[in-house]
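Supplementary notes for students who missed Thursday's class. We covered one full example, reproduced here. Read the sequence, then the structure, then the short commentary at the end.
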Amino acid sequence: MQKQTITKPWYKFITHLWEIPEDWISKELNEVIKFMPKTWRPATEWYPYWLEKKYIFLKSWEWDNLYTDKYDFDWEYISIWDGWSANIHYVNWKFWVSWHNYVFNSINPNILNNSLLYHYLFFRKNHWWILYKWVWIKNISKTDIEWIKIWFSKSLIEQQKIAKILNTCYNQIEITKQIIQKIELRNKWLQLQLLNWKVRLPWFSEKWHTLELDECLNYSPRPVDKPSENFFALWVRSHWKWLFHKNDFDPEDIAIDILYEVKEDDLIVNITFAWEQAIAIANKKDDGWLVSHRFPTYTFKLDKAIHRYFRYLIIQKKFKYMLDQISPGWAWRNRVLSKKDFLKLEVKIPKVEEQKAIADVLDKATEQLNEYKEKLAKLELQKKGLMQQLLTGKTRVKI
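Structure (token representation):
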């Protein structure tokens, strides 16, 4: 009888595309890690964060605000969620996890540094994406994890130095993310206070006036014939995600013959999804792009209102509620905003001088937020480059 052999699926043979240094080791994870058992915890043992219990809960994809008096793990561990994103966490404090998380660490920390192992797995996250994209698996199994190949230096000192460099970069990213969260919270508070006359700037004292949008805006369509060749098209996205650009829109994809030109500082509404806050104000980069009749454009009456102030006003929950009220219907694709009712909406706003002052404050706050977001993007790009160089042996650290 012929002996049956078990072969690994094709996706298990994903390998490196670079030359591994001679003093590095190539191993599968099953040779260097051990999985840890987990304890089932009934809901009666969960506590919300304000009760100040000691040990935090790591759910499927992030840290939750549930705590307990007990814990399952107390040392350096790596946790991987078995879901589609395969979120990876490196933990070095007391915690507990859901059943959808695998928890493991290095069999011998004197051979493979746990922190380095985390960074390597994060670097190889595309492995799970390939599984989902091509194999359509529902969950990641222990076998999927065990058959992943990694490469690392034989020198523990070199491993530690690589891990230290990557940890420093990772910590900077986490600190920047925390700063961004605080600035976003501050900016929301500023908008809430300044746009709802709860806090007044000290040099203004005049009463605010309630005006219909008809007193603030002019309906300003600029009809043009549909181009015969591909053109620049705009859409207004829902949930205040501003404008979506398509710079090669095929005229054959739209049946109407008349389109409308957008100018900088126009207020644009998506009448089909206005109830989902699909409203935006055009920037300089949007000037000259074309929209269909479903995206009416308005200009501001500068003696009553300015676009910089309305840029923050239209993203408030109250404004979304007003848009929802003038978008009748039940089916989500049939809830079309009434342009007539739109201009009848009432807003309580100050005079233009105070609008400018409020916009100055909010613009400055937004500018600071954008600076930190740019910093975060650079740090993440730097970390990606460091991983590519250090975790492949292309760049070596001095021992």
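Commentary. DSSP finds eight helices and 21 strands in the chain. The helical segments are 114-123, 126-135, 142-146, 156-195, 307-313, 317-325, 339-342, 352-390. If anything here is unclear, bring it to office hours.
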